[in-house]
Structures are given as C-alpha cells and as structure tokens.
Design brief:
With 369 residues, the protein is an alpha/beta fold. Helix content is 40%, strand content 15%. The termini are far apart. About 3% of the residues have low confidence. The structure holds ligand AN7. The site of ligand AN7 has 21 residues, from helix 4, helix 9 and helix 13.
Length: 369
C-alpha cells in the first residue's frame, strides 16, 4: 500500500468526510526508535523509545497539524493562511501553502529563530513578517489581524491542528503492538502537542474500531491503560512551573521560547487526568542531552526536542519513572534545522593537519581507542 499521509490513513478518526481532498506531503508514519545505549548506561531496565518527528517532510511534528489545518482551509475556500511561530510552524505553513497554491503569512520573532527554519519559510515562498517582539506578541497580533483580514489562522488554536497531531499517538499504539506506553514525555511550549497526544490516546482507548491499520487493530487497545503524560519546559520559559504567564521567556531552545501557552487548560487536563507532571530543564541540561542522544544513539534532534529525553532521564534516575516501564519521548524536530547551536558548542574533534599521509596517520592513531 502506498502511504499518502495521515489524513488519508486516519480519515475515519478525523473530521474529514470522504469528499475532502487532503493537502499532503505524506507526513506522519515516523519511526519509533528504541534507544539501545542510553537505557543501559542509565541502569534502566525498561524501554525508552523515541518518536522521531524530525523525519516529517519539513522536519518537525508541525506537519501533522498543518496537513489537517491546510486541508480544511482549502476545503473552506481560503486563499491565505497566517501563523505566529518560533520557526517550525512557519516552516510547515509555508510548505503546505506552497503545496496548496495559497499564500502563507508568517510572523516570526526578531532574530530568535533557527536559521534553517527561516530558510524554510523563505524557500517555500511565505511572506515573512519579522516582528520586534517574541512569539507571544506574534500570537496576539495574529489573532487581532485575523478578525478583519481574509486569512485562516493555522496556529494550534485552530482545532484542526490538534486533530492532525493526535495521530502520532495512534502510530505509537500501533508500533507497540496495540498498547500505550507507561509514560509519554514531551517538550512543552505552546502546549498544543501534549494536548493532542492526550486526545489521541484517549480516543484510541475509547473508540472500538474494526479498522486494521498496518497490521495492528486499534481495537486491541481496549485495556484501559493510558500513559502518564510528562511535559518538560525550558527553565527560562516555564509558565506551567510558575503557575502563570512568563513575561520575557528566554532559552537556547528557541522553539519553546514561549511564555503564554495557548493550550493552557488542555495541557493541565492532560497532566491531571493522566497522573503525569510538568517539570523544567535548564539550557545546559537540554544541550547536553541533545549531544548525548546524537553521540550515543545516532539521533540528532533540535534542542527543544531534547527536553523530553532530558526530563525523562532525570525522572528515571529519581525513580519517579518506574523501573521496567516503557517510556516514549517525542523528538519534535530535526537537529539539522539548527546546526549553529552545535557549532557554537565547539568543534572538539576537529583536527587540522597538513595534507600529507603521515600527518593524517598520526592524527588517526592518536585518537584510536
Ligand atoms: C521542535 O513553531 O510553537 O507545546 O511556533 O517547534 O505544541 O507548542 C513550536 C513548538 C516543541 C512545542 N518542539 O510544542 C512554533 C512552535 C519543537 C517545536 C515545541 C515546538 P507545543
């Protein structure tokens, strides 16, 4: 079967009738990769698996929501979409608008967006509006402008976004053979994704479908077990830890540099209903985890994404996450989007030598273990 994206694959679980034509780049169907080295090093006897959303068409989980939001916008006859973004939403909006032949307006914070993401908005032909403010300012402006301008908002306050994003939970259940994990760990910024996953897990749990998708029936997932949802924020942008809006969010993980999450209530509900929690990770912890994952497992995610594994490993160490359990961490975006952050960390294994055999041999022998 040729895979044609998540709207077609999960149409019966999405608010799209058979007549609605999907705007798709074949997003979704991302790998759930079991970590082999990190759990052993951490003395963890359970399983840690990463849902690598960085392998979506534009390199982040935003494609899941964007295929749904743009499909609906085009179905309704919209000629333009608009979003505020820390970079990934704008990249996805730009690509799906290009696909649909409509215009994307993207409001991005001045200077605080990874270069790869800015390039994506540009290359896909979006109208880029750089505002002298942060994401929260952009979000406020988008809501105001959309009251009068003929543009469809494709931020996650658009309910179709979370509908698309919930499909990641379905895929995880299928990949685990009809079961949810014990814990699901995510980075939290605007808080849409954690809300969407919780919705997906609950729907898969409650709904008895006879549809068989790629070998596993979601019907098998009827044992009532739902994961505990753990949301991790960057310490400088952690409104869920502070109990309210953070005025000047600051973090190296620019994707989650957000102080006023739009899905505040949904995310709290996910945390409370699932028996999960919120916690925070410092910038050095986030960057160290990004490196650890890349160096020991071969998986390169962007800094914001590393917050999920960072928090999970800390909670495994403390015993908050029980030994022997199955833990899924969503890696929301691809490391290639933000190479600067790695280069800034130093080129510790870059050796400069003369272009001579003996010099290269010496350099190699000195490094062989
Ligand atoms: C890599 O692109 O908000 O908690 O404007 O890009 O659902 O907001 C990005 C968010 C995590 C947080 N990881 O997800 C945007 C934007 C990455 C992200 C998040 C984002 P939410």
């Amino acid at each position: 079967m040729h895979y044609t994206g998540l709207v077609n694959r999960y149409r019966s679980r999405l608010p799209f009738g058979p007549e609605v034509k999907a705007v798709t780049l074949n997003e979704g169907n991302t790998p759930l990769i079991e970590l082999v080295n990190i759990p052993r090093q951490a003395g963890f006897e359970g399983r840690i698996l990463v849902k690598f959303e960085g392998l979506n068409p534009t390199g982040s989980f935003k494609d899941r929501g964007m295929t749904a939001a743009v499909t609906q916008a085009v179905h309704e006859g919209s000629k333009a979409i608009i979003c505020a973004s820390t970079g990934n939403t704008s990249a996805a909006a730009a690509a799906y608008a290009a696909r649909a032949g409509i215009t994307a307006f993207v409001l991005i914070p001045d200077g605080k967006i990874a270069l790869g993401k800015l390039a994506q908005a540009v290359v896909h032909g979006a109208v880029v509006v750089q505002i002298q403010g942060n994401f929260d300012d952009g979000m406020r402006l988008v809501k105001e402008v959309a009251q009068t301008a003929p543009v469809a908002i494709v931020n996650s306050i658009n309910p179709y976004r979370l509908q698309g994003q919930k499909t990641a939970a379905f895929e995880i259940i299928e990949a685990l053979g009809g079961q949810a994990p014990d814990y699901h760990c995510l980075p939290v910024g605007n808080a849409g994704n954690i809300s969407a996953y919780w919705m997906g897990y609950k729907e898969a749990n409650g709904q008895k479908s006879t549809a068989t998708m790629f070998g596993y029936s979601l019907e098998a997932f009827a044992d009532g077990k739902l994961p505990k949802m753990a949301g991790y924020q960057a310490a400088g942008a952690a409104p869920f830890l502070r109990g309210g809006r953070v005025a000047n969010p600051e973090t190296v993980a620019t994707a989650i540099r957000i102080g006023d999450p739009q899905s505040w209530d949904h995310a709290w509900a996910a945390q409370k209903e699932s028996g999960g929690w919120f916690d925070e990770c410092t910038d050095p912890e986030i960057l160290a985890t990004q490196r650890l994952l890349a160096e020991t497992e071969g998986v390169w995610c962007e800094p914001a994404s590393a917050a999920s594994l960072c928090g999970a490993l800390r909670d495994i160490k403390s015993g908050k996450i029980a030994q022997g359990s199955t833990v899924v961490c969503t890696l929301t975006g691809n490391g290639l989007k933000d190479p600067d952050i790695v280069i800034q960390g130093g080129l510790k294994d870059l050796i400069q030598v003369a272009a001579e055999r003996s010099a290269v041999e010496r350099a190699i022998l000195a490094k062989l273990r």
